[in-house]
Write a structure and sequence with these properties.
The chain is an alpha+beta fold and about 300 residues long. It contains seven helices and 21 strands. It has two domains: about 120 residues, lpxc deacetylase, domain 1 (Ribosomal Protein S5, domain 2, 2-Layer Sandwich); about 180 residues, 2-Layer Sandwich (lpxc deacetylase, domain 1). The strands form six sheets. It has a five-stranded mixed β-sheet, with helices on one face. The protein has a five-stranded mixed β-sheet with strand order 12-13-20-14-15, covered by helices on one side. The protein has a three-stranded antiparallel β-sheet with strand order 6-7-8, with no helix packed on it. The longest helix has 14 residues.
């Protein structure tokens, strides 16, 4: 069955890239509503933006969605991952600024808030997109691929020159609360040189190493407190992938593989999948299938305690 959040929950913080402070509230929604953002600060044009792969207008440093009136919401991937990881299919997200608060740089604060409010089951069947054949996109050395699998699996590989990151690879099924336990607390990361360059150009104004991002400099972890997990970078890439895949509009039954991939590659992959009707089919999820989805059999205790 489809679900929504039981009661509203609010978050306040700055955007990582804009530096602008915003208040965001996740509210319950009816069956078949999907996930929508509403810009409460927008007057005189359409404030509603659907969280959907076709609405993605930019995906370089983060995922930004737009409507035809030019209303945008950026850095949506962490809250989208939390919604998917908590099994929420319908919600209205009100926000009074252009960027979702970065908070600690992970999905854990969003997931914790959602779980504290609880999940309400709606009287409507849940449908999934079942991947029927491999679909792949490439850009240089970067690869993103979807292929058939019984549940959503994510296999990610990264390779950075910085010795503190280096080569990392991890593969996981997202079933039975694995996202909450293993990925939700993993923070966004960047290199010190990138932070310096972005700040020099007026971006990343909301970034605060140690509070909302992990910063690496060669063989050093610059952020106070170090890493939450030894392979936190690749786990965060998996978190991002789940959030971006949630823009499909329904859960995906398939294996996602990302090699040096990012937001743009995942969005290109969804566009390629839905451009080929023979690559997928829509299926009603029976009880056995629902138990294999990311939001099944979860509890607040699955969310790691983070600083």
């Amino acid at each position: 069955m489809q679900t929504t959040i039981r009661s509203s929950i609010s978050f306040t913080g700055v955007g990582l890239h804009s530096g602008l402070r915003a208040r965001m509230t996740i509210l319950p929604a009816s069956a078949e509503y999907g996930i929508w953002f509403r810009r409460t600060d927008v007057i005189g044009r359409d404030p509603m933006v659907q969280a959907h792969w076709a609405a993605v207008s930019e995906a370089t440093l983060c995922t930004k969605i737009s409507n035809i009136a030019g209303t945008t919401v950026s850095t949506i991937e962490h809250v989208m991952a939390a919604l998917a990881g908590c099994g929420i299919h319908n919600a209205l997200i009100e926000i009074d600024g252009p960027e979702v608060p970065i908070l600690d740089g992970s999905s854990a604060p969003f997931a914790s808030g959602i779980m504290a409010r609880g999940v309400r089951v709606l009287d409507a069947p849940l449908r999934c997109f079942q991947v029927l054949k491999p679909v792949e996109v490439r850009h240089g050395d970067a690869v993103a691929r979807l292929e058939p699998a019984e549940t959503l699996e994510i296999d990610f590989e990264i390779d950075f020159a910085d010795a503190a990151i280096g080569h990392q690879q991890k593969r996981m099924s997202m079933a039975n609360g694995a996202f909450l336990r293993e990925l939700s607390d993993c923070r966004t990361f960047c290199r010190q040189a990138d932070v310096d360059a972005m700040r020099a150009s007026g971006r990343a104004l909301g970034g605060n190493p140690g509070e909302n991002a992990v910063v690496f400099d060669g063989d050093r972890v610059v952020s106070p407190g170090g890493l939450r997990r030894a392979d936190e970078p690749v786990r965060h890439k998996m978190l991002d992938a789940l959030g971006d895949l949630a823009l499909a509009g329904a859960p995906i039954l398939g294996r996602y593989t990302g090699v040096r991939a990012g937001h743009a590659m995942t969005n290109r992959l969804l566009r390629a999948l839905f451009a080929d009707p023979s690559a997928y089919r829509i299926v009603d999820c029976d009880a056995a299938t629902r138990r294999r989805l990311p939001g099944s059999d979860i509890s607040p205790a699955d969310i790691p305690a983070v600083a």
